Amino acid sequence: MSKTTKWALIAVIVIGVAIWGFYSLKPKTNKDIPTGPGPMPAAGAPIGRGGQTLLVRYAIMQPTELVDGINISGSLIPNEEVNLSFETSGKITGIFFEEGSKVRKGQVLAKINDAPLQAQLKKLEAQYQSTEDRLARQKALYEKEAVSKEAYQDAEANFNKLQADIEECRAKLDQTELKAPFDGIIGLRQVSVGAYASPNTNVATLTNTEKLKVEFAIPERYAGVLQNGAKLTFTVEGSDEVHNAQVYATNSKVDQGTRTYLVRAIYDNSKGKLVPGRYVSVSLNTRTFENTLAVPSEAIISEMGIDKVFLYKGGKAIPQEITKGLRTDAMVQVLSGLNVGDTVITSGTMQLRTGMRVELK
Question: pLDDT per residue over 305-354, tens digit each?
């Protein structure tokens, strides 16, 4: 490359840079700015001049029924249950029940050896006739003043003592028989014939399942609120079938360790659908408020211990102080501050300000 060509190339580059610099510093007109749709405002953001109009959801106040419900776990327990044992000691001579079978009240279930008592009873019964005859003779002689009063009283005392001994012997014989104290289903036996039994020996367990008790504990705030006769429903593990029961008793005090209140309800199990010991899920309505006002919980704002909601009035958000009552999972009862027909704003409450323009959605 010649020297003349080299200097010509350098001159062209310098002139190009100068022209680019001149146009980059020149002010631009509107036609120089790209046109087209710009980014839209974010959903839910204030719209309109000055950002003072907000789209909101709302609820119109109407009387409604509000139910205070509890969902809690519990268990099924027998209506009656007892571990069967003899009242006296001795060798078991007979077992008269089948495991898992139904038995009736008074049915003899087992027996221990009563031979010594039977012999003693026969001896006493043999003395009974002669002692009774002697008393009759002494009475006749006493009425004729042929014997002293003391002799007659001795004969009467001997007769009464013999009667008491016979009754005692029969009572002991009765204790050698194990009888069912109520109707029910007897469980697995724990002894065999020939075993020596004492009052501490568990022969079997007798359970009455014609009715079952539903036992559960509720929070202490419901103590005194839940009354006998209250209805409830429950389901058992592995089944969607709903069963009905009725509260019949509550504990006399709150458990200080768990801060709960023990409740029992009765369930008619005459068809034998359920067995004791099963886990249950209980649903219970403790209180029902009819013709009351309620708002969604998200509509309430709490500031400095004061609860309020925003009302829609003339296109603006107006705060209104309220008094809360019952609170459920989604709704809050309003005891004062609202009237039927009021329009309560239920969304965007954290963005609202007094007098702010709103549009109902």
Answer: 899 999 999 999 999 999 998 887 788 999 999 999 999 999 988 889 99
User: Distance (Å, rounded) from C-alpha 78 to C-alpha 267?
Assistant: 10
Burial of 68: CB neighbours in 10 Å, binned 0-12, 13-18, 19+: middle
Structure tokens at 73: 């776990």
Q: Which residues pair with 311 in a beta bridge?
A: 318, 344
Condensed to tens digits (0 to 9), the pLDDT of residues 234-259 reads 999 888 899 999 999 999 899 999 99
DSSP conformation class of 89: -
Q: Which helix (H) or strand (E) holds 205?
A: strand 204-219
Exposed e or buried b per residue across 323-343, where buried means at least 16 C-beta atoms within 10 angstroms of its C-beta: ebbbeeeebbbbeebbeeebe
Rounded to two decimals, the pTM is 0.62
Is-contact 264 249, C-beta < 8 A? yes
Q: Is residue 44 part of a domain?
A: no
Tokens of 186: 């007897």
CA distances 217 to 11, 143, 210, 286, Å, are 98, 73, 23, 13
Both tokens of 69, joined, read 């419900």
Domain hosting 251: range is 71-77+209-285
One domain for residues 93 and 62: no
